[in-house]
Amino acid sequence: QVQLVESGGGLVQAGGSLRLSCAASRSIFSFNAMAWYRQAPGKQRELIAHITNVGSTNYADSVKGRFTISRNPVKNTVYLQMNSLQPGDTAVYYCNAHPDYWGQGTQVTVSS
Predict the structure, then answer these.
(1) Phi and psi of 87, rounded to 5°?
(2) How many alpha carbons fall within 13 Å on the CB side of residue 53?
(3) Between the CA atoms of 99, 102, 107 and 112, what dihedral angle is there, to the nearest 10 degrees?
(4) Residue of 24, 29, 20, 32 lying closest to 3 (CA atoms)
(5) Range 40-67 burial, b when 16+ CB lie within 10 A, else e
């Protein structure tokens, strides 16, 4: 069974930054891709960033230019650097190891 453990969420003021981490219990290269999703209250879970095995990245339009996904294969960890945070970024953020594995989620709250 794969475990994904997220950390780094919290409360931040608008314009601030946070970095989320997702530590996997096995090599991140054993998955086709790693991704970050988020789910705001009353909304569906949405894909916001992913990184493939060969390092290709893609972002949702809502976060492009502000968020950066990266990885450290030695630590089996994927990161999400979030800059210029806005109240609309408030959500629970989930790590995903494509396609089947999910972390428990970490809350990000951005105050205005």
Answers:
(1) -55, -30
(2) 7
(3) 0
(4) 24
(5) eeeeeeeebbbbeeeeeeebeeebeeeb
Tokens representing residue 34 in the block: 């790693």
* pLDDT one-digit tens code per residue, 32-81: 999 999 999 999 999 999 999 999 999 999 999 999 999 999 999 999 99
What's the residue count for the chain? 112
Residue whose C-alpha is closest to residue 93's, from 105, 77, 76, 75: 105
State both tokens at 46: 């949405």
Q: What is the pLDDT of residue 99?
A: 85
